[in-house]
Specification:
3 helices; 176 residues; six-stranded mixed sheet; three-stranded antiparallel sheet; 9 strands; alpha/beta; Rossmann fold; binds inosinic acid
């Protein structure tokens, strides 16, 4: 995307340090217990793969895909499940892993939805949180970084499908 201006916000080193620390916290929290770690596709795939490698306990990997944004940078407020879990979470400890919490609508929907499937517990981890953008009361158990309301890309996050492969987080502005 040549008509976009990227300004780095969180470096690769800062991300890796934060993910490592979160992994240690989660290792202590789930010591000797099995967890089902749910990756919310697509944006969480990079954070997810780094975080689960930093958690030293038995992890079962599951994936969900939801849509709320389409190709726009504004939340539609609607959450639709496009890909669902393949296994049961009944009586399991669930760790729901999100890239970013913006309005909180997606995470709230997923938490409520998963709670209906009888898990032993549901905890949430998000790399990024925009506290100023929250539209619903949405508690996140483990947050990497709190950021402003600006749109960000990289480390799994996209703008119109681009920039997911950046190893760092950047703010993005249109030059046109
Ligand atoms: P929420 O439901 O408004 O909290 O939005 C959650 C989803 O919106 C995230 O999982 C992202 O896919 C997307 N999103 C929100 N803010 C950004 C951003 O700044 N950059 C890229 N994607 C974002």
């Amino acid at each position: 995307m040549h008509n976009m201006n990227l300004s780095p916000l969180i470096s690769e080193e800062e991300i890796q340090k934060k993910v490592h620390n979160m992994g240690q916290t989660l290792t202590a929290k789930y010591k000797d217990q099995q967890i089902v770690a749910i990756c919310v596709l697509k944006g969480s795939f990079m954070f997810y793969s780094d975080l689960i490698r930093a958690i030293d306990t038995d992890v079962i990997c599951e994936y969900m895909a939801v849509s709320s944004y389409g190709n726009s940078s504004q939340s539609s407020g609607e959450v639709k499940i496009n890909l669902d879990l393949t296994g049961t979470i009944r009586d399991r400890h669930v760790l729901l892993i999100e890239d970013i919490v913006d309005t909180g609508l997606t995470l709230n929907f997923l938490k409520n939805h998963l709670a209906m499937r009888g898990p032993r517990s549901v905890a949430t981890a998000a790399l990024l949180l925009k506290p100023g953008a929250l539209k619903v009361d949405c508690a996140v158990d483990h947050v990497g970084f709190e950021i402003s309301n600006d749109f960000v890309v990289g480390y799994g996050l996209d703008y119109q499908g681009y920039f997911r492969n950046l190893p760092y987080i950047a703010q993005v502005q249109s030059l046109s």
